[in-house]
Hints:
binds flavin-adenine dinucleotide, FAD/NAD(P)-binding domain, globular, 6-stranded mixed β-sheet, 6-stranded antiparallel β-sheet
Amino acid sequence: MYINVIGAGLAGCEAAYQIAKRKINVKLYDMKPKKKSPAHKSNNFAELVCSNSLKAERVCSAAGLLKEEMRFFDSLLLKCADKAKVPAGGALAVDRDIFSKLVTDEINNNEFIEVVNEEVTKIPDDAITIIATGPLTSDKLSEDIANTFGNSLHFFDAAAPIVTLESIDMECAFYESRYGKGDGDDYLNCPMNKEEYEVFYDALINAQRAPLHDFDVMDPKVYEGCMPIEVMAQRGKDTIRFGPMKPVGLTDPRTGHRPWAVLQLRKENVSGTMLNLVGFQTNLKFPEQERVFRLIPALYNAEFIRYGVMHRNTFLNSPEILRNDFSVKNSPNLFFAGQITGVEGYMESASSGIIAGINAANKLNNKPSVSLPETTMMGSLSKYISDSYVKNFQPMGANFGILPELENRPRDKKARGQAYADRSLSDLNTNKSEVLF
Ligand SMILES: Cc1cc2nc3c(=O)[nH]c(=O)nc-3n(C[C@H](O)[C@H](O)[C@H](O)COP(=O)(O)OP(=O)(O)OC[C@H]3O[C@@H](n4cnc5c(N)ncnc54)[C@H](O)[C@@H]3O)c2cc1C
Protein backbone atom coordinates (compact mmCIF):
# COMPACT_ATOMS: atom_id res chain seq x y z
CA MET A 1 0.00 0.00 0.00
CA TYR A 2 1.34 3.42 -0.90
CA ILE A 3 0.29 6.96 -1.77
CA ASN A 4 1.56 8.85 -4.83
CA VAL A 5 2.69 12.43 -4.41
CA ILE A 6 3.40 14.18 -7.70
CA GLY A 7 5.80 17.13 -7.42
CA ALA A 8 8.52 17.51 -4.78
CA GLY A 9 8.07 21.25 -4.38
CA LEU A 10 6.96 23.00 -1.22
CA ALA A 11 3.55 21.34 -1.01
CA GLY A 12 4.66 17.91 -2.22
CA CYS A 13 7.51 17.62 0.30
CA GLU A 14 5.24 18.57 3.20
CA ALA A 15 2.58 16.11 2.01
CA ALA A 16 5.07 13.25 1.62
CA TYR A 17 6.53 13.96 5.07
CA GLN A 18 3.11 13.95 6.78
CA ILE A 19 2.19 10.66 5.10
CA ALA A 20 5.54 9.08 6.00
CA LYS A 21 5.12 10.27 9.62
CA ARG A 22 2.02 8.07 9.68
CA LYS A 23 4.18 5.12 8.56
CA ILE A 24 2.63 4.88 5.11
CA ASN A 25 4.81 4.39 2.03
CA VAL A 26 5.01 7.28 -0.43
CA LYS A 27 6.09 7.37 -4.05
CA LEU A 28 7.23 10.96 -4.54
CA TYR A 29 7.60 11.88 -8.21
CA ASP A 30 9.49 14.88 -9.57
CA MET A 31 10.60 15.55 -13.12
CA LYS A 32 13.82 17.09 -11.81
CA PRO A 33 16.68 16.84 -12.63
CA LYS A 34 15.84 15.56 -16.15
CA LYS A 35 13.32 18.29 -16.83
CA LYS A 36 12.79 21.66 -15.16
CA SER A 37 10.12 24.35 -15.37
CA PRO A 38 11.26 27.74 -16.74
CA ALA A 39 11.61 29.05 -13.15
CA HIS A 40 13.27 26.04 -11.47
CA LYS A 41 17.07 25.92 -11.61
CA SER A 42 18.23 23.64 -8.78
CA ASN A 43 18.28 19.82 -8.71
CA ASN A 44 17.08 19.87 -5.11
CA PHE A 45 13.50 19.71 -3.89
CA ALA A 46 11.43 22.48 -2.26
CA GLU A 47 13.12 25.09 -4.41
CA LEU A 48 12.33 28.74 -3.68
CA VAL A 49 12.02 30.07 -7.21
CA CYS A 50 12.14 33.76 -6.37
CA SER A 51 12.45 35.53 -3.01
CA ASN A 52 14.28 33.76 -0.16
CA SER A 53 11.84 35.20 2.37
CA LEU A 54 9.10 33.11 3.93
CA LYS A 55 7.57 36.38 5.18
CA ALA A 56 6.89 37.65 8.70
CA GLU A 57 7.62 35.61 11.82
CA ARG A 58 5.57 37.46 14.44
CA VAL A 59 2.49 35.51 15.30
CA CYS A 60 0.30 38.62 15.32
CA SER A 61 0.77 38.88 11.53
CA ALA A 62 -1.15 36.71 9.06
CA ALA A 63 2.03 35.14 7.65
CA GLY A 64 3.39 34.54 11.16
CA LEU A 65 0.18 32.91 12.35
CA LEU A 66 0.19 30.59 9.34
CA LYS A 67 3.72 29.48 10.22
CA GLU A 68 2.80 28.95 13.88
CA GLU A 69 -0.07 26.70 12.81
CA MET A 70 2.25 24.78 10.48
CA ARG A 71 4.67 24.24 13.38
CA PHE A 72 1.75 22.72 15.32
CA PHE A 73 1.69 20.03 12.59
CA ASP A 74 5.48 19.52 12.76
CA SER A 75 6.10 21.18 9.38
CA LEU A 76 9.19 19.72 7.69
CA LEU A 77 9.84 22.93 5.78
CA LEU A 78 9.84 25.12 8.86
CA LYS A 79 12.21 22.77 10.70
CA CYS A 80 14.60 23.10 7.77
CA ALA A 81 13.98 26.86 7.47
CA ASP A 82 14.96 27.34 11.13
CA LYS A 83 18.29 25.63 10.41
CA ALA A 84 18.90 27.60 7.18
CA LYS A 85 17.85 30.96 8.59
CA VAL A 86 19.61 34.21 7.58
CA PRO A 87 19.10 37.57 9.36
CA ALA A 88 16.09 39.42 7.91
CA GLY A 89 14.60 41.63 10.62
CA GLY A 90 11.10 40.43 11.45
CA ALA A 91 10.94 37.99 8.54
CA LEU A 92 11.98 34.35 8.30
CA ALA A 93 14.44 34.30 5.41
CA VAL A 94 16.67 31.39 4.47
CA ASP A 95 19.78 30.52 2.53
CA ARG A 96 17.85 28.95 -0.33
CA ASP A 97 20.50 26.35 -1.22
CA ILE A 98 20.98 25.16 2.35
CA PHE A 99 17.21 25.12 2.85
CA SER A 100 16.48 23.00 -0.24
CA LYS A 101 19.39 20.67 0.51
CA LEU A 102 18.13 20.08 4.06
CA VAL A 103 14.61 19.28 2.79
CA THR A 104 15.99 17.02 0.04
CA ASP A 105 18.17 15.10 2.53
CA GLU A 106 15.22 14.61 4.88
CA ILE A 107 13.15 13.26 1.99
CA ASN A 108 15.89 11.01 0.60
CA ASN A 109 16.72 9.60 4.04
CA ASN A 110 13.12 8.85 4.97
CA GLU A 111 12.55 5.09 4.93
CA PHE A 112 8.91 5.47 3.92
CA ILE A 113 9.58 7.74 0.91
CA GLU A 114 10.68 6.40 -2.47
CA VAL A 115 11.75 9.19 -4.85
CA VAL A 116 10.97 8.66 -8.55
CA ASN A 117 12.72 11.15 -10.86
CA GLU A 118 10.17 11.12 -13.66
CA GLU A 119 7.74 13.48 -15.27
CA VAL A 120 4.17 12.31 -14.69
CA THR A 121 2.12 12.95 -17.81
CA LYS A 122 -1.29 11.57 -16.75
CA ILE A 123 -3.19 11.63 -13.49
CA PRO A 124 -2.27 8.26 -11.94
CA ASP A 125 -5.02 5.83 -10.96
CA ASP A 126 -2.97 3.10 -9.28
CA ALA A 127 -3.27 4.53 -5.74
CA ILE A 128 -4.45 7.47 -3.67
CA THR A 129 -2.68 10.42 -5.30
CA ILE A 130 -1.81 14.00 -4.40
CA ILE A 131 -0.96 16.29 -7.31
CA ALA A 132 1.31 19.13 -6.19
CA THR A 133 3.01 20.15 -9.41
CA GLY A 134 2.74 23.87 -8.81
CA PRO A 135 2.07 26.99 -10.87
CA LEU A 136 4.34 25.76 -13.67
CA THR A 137 3.01 22.20 -13.97
CA SER A 138 4.49 20.53 -17.06
CA ASP A 139 2.47 20.81 -20.27
CA LYS A 140 1.46 17.17 -20.66
CA LEU A 141 0.13 16.79 -17.14
CA SER A 142 -1.60 20.20 -17.41
CA GLU A 143 -3.29 18.95 -20.55
CA ASP A 144 -4.52 15.79 -18.83
CA ILE A 145 -5.80 17.81 -15.83
CA ALA A 146 -7.55 20.24 -18.21
CA ASN A 147 -9.15 17.34 -20.12
CA THR A 148 -10.32 15.74 -16.87
CA PHE A 149 -11.77 18.90 -15.35
CA GLY A 150 -13.10 20.65 -18.44
CA ASN A 151 -12.57 24.40 -18.42
CA SER A 152 -11.62 24.46 -14.77
CA LEU A 153 -7.86 24.80 -15.16
CA HIS A 154 -6.49 28.31 -15.58
CA PHE A 155 -3.08 28.88 -17.12
CA PHE A 156 -2.75 32.53 -16.43
CA ASP A 157 -3.51 34.69 -13.46
CA ALA A 158 -4.78 38.13 -14.48
CA ALA A 159 -6.18 39.35 -11.22
CA ALA A 160 -7.50 42.58 -9.81
CA PRO A 161 -6.52 43.68 -6.28
CA ILE A 162 -8.67 42.81 -3.28
CA VAL A 163 -9.22 45.24 -0.39
CA THR A 164 -10.95 44.93 2.97
CA LEU A 165 -14.44 46.35 3.43
CA GLU A 166 -13.49 47.90 6.76
CA SER A 167 -10.81 50.03 5.11
CA ILE A 168 -13.22 51.70 2.64
CA ASP A 169 -14.29 55.26 3.41
CA MET A 170 -18.07 54.81 3.38
CA GLU A 171 -18.57 58.60 3.30
CA CYS A 172 -17.25 58.44 -0.27
CA ALA A 173 -18.92 55.17 -1.39
CA PHE A 174 -22.47 53.93 -1.91
CA TYR A 175 -24.23 50.63 -2.56
CA GLU A 176 -26.21 50.42 -5.80
CA SER A 177 -26.51 48.02 -8.73
CA ARG A 178 -26.47 49.58 -12.19
CA TYR A 179 -30.04 50.62 -13.16
CA GLY A 180 -31.22 49.04 -9.90
CA LYS A 181 -30.70 45.49 -11.22
CA GLY A 182 -29.79 42.70 -8.77
CA ASP A 183 -29.64 43.12 -5.00
CA GLY A 184 -29.03 46.67 -3.86
CA ASP A 185 -25.80 45.77 -2.10
CA ASP A 186 -24.24 43.71 -4.89
CA TYR A 187 -21.81 46.50 -5.71
CA LEU A 188 -20.14 49.12 -3.58
CA ASN A 189 -19.53 52.11 -5.86
CA CYS A 190 -16.58 54.45 -5.45
CA PRO A 191 -17.43 57.61 -7.44
CA MET A 192 -15.08 60.28 -8.77
CA ASN A 193 -15.69 63.74 -10.11
CA LYS A 194 -13.89 65.04 -13.22
CA GLU A 195 -10.94 66.56 -11.34
CA GLU A 196 -10.40 63.45 -9.21
CA TYR A 197 -10.59 61.24 -12.28
CA GLU A 198 -8.00 63.29 -14.18
CA VAL A 199 -5.49 63.11 -11.33
CA PHE A 200 -6.09 59.35 -11.07
CA TYR A 201 -5.84 58.86 -14.82
CA ASP A 202 -2.48 60.64 -15.10
CA ALA A 203 -1.07 58.62 -12.22
CA LEU A 204 -2.36 55.38 -13.74
CA ILE A 205 -0.82 55.75 -17.18
CA ASN A 206 2.50 56.93 -15.77
CA ALA A 207 2.84 54.36 -12.97
CA GLN A 208 5.65 51.79 -12.92
CA ARG A 209 4.84 48.34 -14.22
CA ALA A 210 6.29 45.04 -13.02
CA PRO A 211 8.69 43.34 -15.45
CA LEU A 212 7.40 40.13 -17.07
CA HIS A 213 9.39 36.86 -17.50
CA ASP A 214 9.26 35.32 -20.99
CA PHE A 215 6.94 32.60 -19.66
CA ASP A 216 4.65 35.24 -18.16
CA VAL A 217 3.85 36.88 -21.48
CA MET A 218 0.20 36.22 -22.24
CA ASP A 219 -1.36 34.73 -25.33
CA PRO A 220 -2.74 37.80 -27.23
CA LYS A 221 -6.15 36.09 -27.63
CA VAL A 222 -6.48 35.81 -23.85
CA TYR A 223 -4.93 39.23 -23.28
CA GLU A 224 -7.72 41.21 -24.92
CA GLY A 225 -10.27 39.78 -22.48
CA CYS A 226 -8.32 40.58 -19.33
CA MET A 227 -6.25 43.55 -20.31
CA PRO A 228 -4.51 45.41 -17.48
CA ILE A 229 -6.37 48.59 -16.54
CA GLU A 230 -3.25 50.68 -17.15
CA VAL A 231 -2.89 49.32 -20.71
CA MET A 232 -6.56 49.93 -21.47
CA ALA A 233 -6.24 53.46 -20.07
CA GLN A 234 -3.43 54.21 -22.49
CA ARG A 235 -5.83 53.79 -25.43
CA GLY A 236 -7.44 57.11 -24.61
CA LYS A 237 -8.46 59.34 -21.73
CA ASP A 238 -12.07 58.13 -21.74
CA THR A 239 -11.56 54.47 -22.65
CA ILE A 240 -11.87 53.22 -19.08
CA ARG A 241 -14.77 55.61 -18.43
CA PHE A 242 -16.60 53.70 -21.15
CA GLY A 243 -15.25 50.41 -19.82
CA PRO A 244 -14.75 49.20 -16.23
CA MET A 245 -15.25 52.71 -14.75
CA LYS A 246 -18.43 53.58 -16.61
CA PRO A 247 -20.82 55.56 -14.41
CA VAL A 248 -24.06 54.83 -16.33
CA GLY A 249 -27.07 53.66 -14.34
CA LEU A 250 -25.64 54.99 -11.07
CA THR A 251 -26.52 58.04 -8.98
CA ASP A 252 -24.19 59.42 -6.32
CA PRO A 253 -26.45 60.08 -3.28
CA ARG A 254 -24.16 62.93 -2.20
CA THR A 255 -24.80 64.94 -5.39
CA GLY A 256 -27.95 63.36 -6.80
CA HIS A 257 -26.12 63.12 -10.15
CA ARG A 258 -24.30 60.55 -12.20
CA PRO A 259 -20.61 60.54 -11.23
CA TRP A 260 -17.89 61.23 -13.81
CA ALA A 261 -16.35 57.79 -13.29
CA VAL A 262 -16.93 54.91 -10.87
CA LEU A 263 -14.88 52.06 -9.53
CA GLN A 264 -17.16 49.19 -8.53
CA LEU A 265 -16.23 46.84 -5.70
CA ARG A 266 -17.74 43.36 -5.61
CA LYS A 267 -17.88 40.91 -2.69
CA GLU A 268 -15.14 38.33 -2.84
CA ASN A 269 -16.44 36.09 -0.04
CA VAL A 270 -19.85 35.28 1.39
CA SER A 271 -19.40 37.52 4.44
CA GLY A 272 -18.46 40.45 2.19
CA THR A 273 -15.35 41.37 4.20
CA MET A 274 -13.16 41.21 1.08
CA LEU A 275 -13.88 43.27 -2.03
CA ASN A 276 -12.58 42.92 -5.57
CA LEU A 277 -11.80 46.01 -7.69
CA VAL A 278 -13.97 45.07 -10.67
CA GLY A 279 -12.13 45.18 -14.01
CA PHE A 280 -8.91 46.41 -12.40
CA GLN A 281 -6.61 43.52 -13.33
CA THR A 282 -3.18 45.11 -13.33
CA ASN A 283 0.50 44.58 -13.77
CA LEU A 284 1.61 47.66 -11.81
CA LYS A 285 4.29 47.19 -9.17
CA PHE A 286 2.70 46.52 -5.78
CA PRO A 287 3.60 49.87 -4.13
CA GLU A 288 2.34 51.63 -7.27
CA GLN A 289 -1.02 49.86 -6.97
CA GLU A 290 -1.41 51.29 -3.48
CA ARG A 291 -0.29 54.76 -4.53
CA VAL A 292 -2.46 55.00 -7.63
CA PHE A 293 -5.64 53.23 -6.51
CA ARG A 294 -5.70 55.18 -3.23
CA LEU A 295 -6.26 58.29 -5.36
CA ILE A 296 -9.86 57.07 -5.67
CA PRO A 297 -11.42 58.90 -2.70
CA ALA A 298 -13.19 55.88 -1.14
CA LEU A 299 -9.90 53.94 -1.28
CA TYR A 300 -7.81 56.63 0.39
CA ASN A 301 -6.97 54.31 3.31
CA ALA A 302 -7.62 51.01 1.55
CA GLU A 303 -5.94 47.92 2.95
CA PHE A 304 -4.80 45.67 0.09
CA ILE A 305 -4.97 42.00 1.02
CA ARG A 306 -4.09 40.85 -2.48
CA TYR A 307 -2.40 42.86 -5.18
CA GLY A 308 -3.30 42.54 -8.85
CA VAL A 309 -0.99 40.26 -10.81
CA MET A 310 -0.45 39.12 -14.36
CA HIS A 311 1.62 35.95 -14.56
CA ARG A 312 1.71 32.35 -15.71
CA ASN A 313 -0.04 30.38 -13.01
CA THR A 314 -1.63 26.99 -13.44
CA PHE A 315 -4.50 26.73 -10.99
CA LEU A 316 -7.82 24.96 -10.70
CA ASN A 317 -11.17 26.59 -10.31
CA SER A 318 -11.05 24.89 -6.92
CA PRO A 319 -14.43 25.96 -5.50
CA GLU A 320 -16.04 23.83 -8.23
CA ILE A 321 -13.70 20.91 -7.83
CA LEU A 322 -12.21 20.54 -4.35
CA ARG A 323 -13.45 19.86 -0.83
CA ASN A 324 -11.86 21.68 2.08
CA ASP A 325 -9.68 18.60 2.77
CA PHE A 326 -8.14 19.14 -0.72
CA SER A 327 -9.72 15.99 -2.19
CA VAL A 328 -11.62 16.09 -5.48
CA LYS A 329 -15.40 16.17 -4.97
CA ASN A 330 -16.31 13.32 -7.30
CA SER A 331 -13.02 11.45 -7.09
CA PRO A 332 -12.16 10.98 -3.41
CA ASN A 333 -8.86 9.13 -4.02
CA LEU A 334 -7.45 12.17 -5.81
CA PHE A 335 -6.10 15.21 -3.95
CA PHE A 336 -4.45 18.44 -5.06
CA ALA A 337 -2.09 20.56 -2.99
CA GLY A 338 -0.01 23.70 -3.37
CA GLN A 339 -0.35 26.65 -5.66
CA ILE A 340 -2.34 24.62 -8.20
CA THR A 341 -5.26 24.66 -5.73
CA GLY A 342 -5.33 28.47 -5.68
CA VAL A 343 -3.53 29.09 -2.43
CA GLU A 344 -0.79 31.59 -3.13
CA GLY A 345 2.70 31.82 -1.68
CA TYR A 346 5.46 29.53 -0.45
CA MET A 347 4.07 28.86 3.01
CA GLU A 348 0.45 28.77 1.89
CA SER A 349 1.42 26.10 -0.65
CA ALA A 350 3.37 24.14 1.96
CA SER A 351 0.51 24.35 4.48
CA SER A 352 -1.96 22.93 1.97
CA GLY A 353 0.47 20.04 1.47
CA ILE A 354 0.25 19.32 5.20
CA ILE A 355 -3.56 19.14 5.10
CA ALA A 356 -3.66 17.10 1.89
CA GLY A 357 -1.01 14.73 3.26
CA ILE A 358 -2.89 14.15 6.53
CA ASN A 359 -6.16 13.59 4.68
CA ALA A 360 -4.68 11.26 2.06
CA ALA A 361 -3.23 9.18 4.93
CA ASN A 362 -6.61 9.22 6.68
CA LYS A 363 -8.26 8.09 3.47
CA LEU A 364 -5.92 5.12 3.20
CA ASN A 365 -6.52 4.26 6.86
CA ASN A 366 -10.32 4.62 6.46
CA LYS A 367 -10.37 7.45 8.96
CA PRO A 368 -12.62 10.50 8.57
CA SER A 369 -11.14 13.50 6.86
CA VAL A 370 -9.88 16.38 8.96
CA SER A 371 -11.24 19.92 8.55
CA LEU A 372 -9.38 22.56 10.47
CA PRO A 373 -11.33 25.21 12.41
CA GLU A 374 -12.22 28.19 10.20
CA THR A 375 -10.71 30.44 12.83
CA THR A 376 -7.26 29.15 11.82
CA MET A 377 -5.40 30.55 8.82
CA MET A 378 -4.99 27.04 7.38
CA GLY A 379 -8.69 26.29 7.91
CA SER A 380 -9.75 29.59 6.38
CA LEU A 381 -7.59 29.11 3.30
CA SER A 382 -9.03 25.59 2.87
CA LYS A 383 -12.52 27.05 3.18
CA TYR A 384 -11.77 29.80 0.66
CA ILE A 385 -10.49 27.44 -2.04
CA SER A 386 -13.56 25.22 -1.62
CA ASP A 387 -16.19 27.94 -1.07
CA SER A 388 -18.82 27.47 -3.77
CA TYR A 389 -20.02 31.07 -3.15
CA VAL A 390 -16.79 32.31 -4.74
CA LYS A 391 -17.58 32.70 -8.44
CA ASN A 392 -14.65 34.63 -9.86
CA PHE A 393 -12.03 32.50 -8.11
CA GLN A 394 -8.60 34.05 -7.76
CA PRO A 395 -5.64 32.67 -5.80
CA MET A 396 -5.32 33.86 -2.22
CA GLY A 397 -2.53 34.15 0.32
CA ALA A 398 -2.73 34.31 4.11
CA ASN A 399 -4.48 37.43 5.41
CA PHE A 400 -6.75 38.30 8.32
CA GLY A 401 -9.57 39.34 5.96
CA ILE A 402 -10.47 35.68 5.33
CA LEU A 403 -10.87 34.82 9.02
CA PRO A 404 -14.27 35.10 10.72
CA GLU A 405 -14.73 38.40 12.54
CA LEU A 406 -13.59 38.59 16.19
CA GLU A 407 -16.28 38.96 18.84
CA ASN A 408 -14.52 41.83 20.59
CA ARG A 409 -12.45 43.38 17.86
CA PRO A 410 -9.52 45.43 19.20
CA ARG A 411 -9.06 48.73 17.33
CA ASP A 412 -5.28 48.52 17.52
CA LYS A 413 -3.88 46.53 14.56
CA LYS A 414 -1.24 44.63 16.54
CA ALA A 415 -3.67 43.74 19.34
CA ARG A 416 -6.17 42.61 16.70
CA GLY A 417 -3.57 40.36 15.07
CA GLN A 418 -2.71 38.91 18.47
CA ALA A 419 -6.42 38.26 19.15
CA TYR A 420 -6.75 36.40 15.82
CA ALA A 421 -3.66 34.36 16.71
CA ASP A 422 -4.84 33.57 20.27
CA ARG A 423 -8.22 32.41 18.97
CA SER A 424 -6.69 30.26 16.23
CA LEU A 425 -4.11 28.54 18.43
CA SER A 426 -6.63 27.96 21.20
CA ASP A 427 -9.08 26.38 18.72
CA LEU A 428 -6.33 24.19 17.28
CA ASN A 429 -5.37 22.97 20.74
CA THR A 430 -8.99 22.32 21.68
CA ASN A 431 -9.33 20.12 18.58
CA LYS A 432 -5.86 18.58 18.97
CA SER A 433 -6.98 14.96 19.26
CA GLU A 434 -9.12 15.24 16.11
CA VAL A 435 -6.61 17.04 13.91
CA LEU A 436 -3.41 15.31 14.98
CA PHE A 437 -4.62 11.76 15.88
C1 LIG B 1 8.28 32.78 -11.03
C2 LIG B 1 7.58 32.61 -9.71
C3 LIG B 1 8.00 33.35 -8.61
C4 LIG B 1 7.37 33.19 -7.36
N1 LIG B 1 7.82 33.90 -6.30
C5 LIG B 1 7.27 33.75 -5.09
C6 LIG B 1 7.78 34.44 -3.97
O1 LIG B 1 8.74 35.20 -4.07
N2 LIG B 1 7.19 34.27 -2.77
C7 LIG B 1 6.13 33.43 -2.62
O2 LIG B 1 5.65 33.29 -1.49
N3 LIG B 1 5.62 32.75 -3.67
C8 LIG B 1 6.16 32.88 -4.91
N4 LIG B 1 5.66 32.20 -5.99
C9 LIG B 1 4.42 31.44 -5.84
C10 LIG B 1 4.48 30.05 -5.14
O3 LIG B 1 4.52 30.24 -3.78
C11 LIG B 1 5.60 29.17 -5.53
O4 LIG B 1 5.45 28.92 -6.89
C12 LIG B 1 5.62 27.83 -4.76
O5 LIG B 1 6.84 27.20 -5.07
C13 LIG B 1 4.47 26.89 -5.04
O6 LIG B 1 4.66 25.68 -4.37
P1 LIG B 1 4.14 24.30 -4.99
O7 LIG B 1 4.59 23.21 -4.08
O8 LIG B 1 2.71 24.39 -5.30
O9 LIG B 1 4.89 24.17 -6.40
P2 LIG B 1 6.46 24.11 -6.73
O10 LIG B 1 7.25 24.54 -5.54
O11 LIG B 1 6.63 24.81 -8.01
O12 LIG B 1 6.72 22.56 -6.92
C14 LIG B 1 6.22 21.85 -8.01
C15 LIG B 1 7.19 20.70 -8.31
O13 LIG B 1 6.54 19.84 -9.24
C16 LIG B 1 7.46 19.43 -10.24
N5 LIG B 1 6.68 19.10 -11.43
C17 LIG B 1 5.97 19.92 -12.24
N6 LIG B 1 5.30 19.21 -13.17
C18 LIG B 1 5.62 17.89 -12.95
C19 LIG B 1 5.24 16.66 -13.57
N7 LIG B 1 4.40 16.61 -14.59
N8 LIG B 1 5.75 15.50 -13.09
C20 LIG B 1 6.60 15.52 -12.02
N9 LIG B 1 7.01 16.65 -11.41
C21 LIG B 1 6.50 17.81 -11.86
C22 LIG B 1 8.41 20.61 -10.38
O14 LIG B 1 9.68 20.19 -10.84
C23 LIG B 1 8.49 21.14 -8.92
O15 LIG B 1 9.57 20.57 -8.21
C24 LIG B 1 6.27 32.30 -7.24
C25 LIG B 1 5.85 31.57 -8.34
C26 LIG B 1 6.49 31.70 -9.57
C27 LIG B 1 6.04 30.88 -10.73
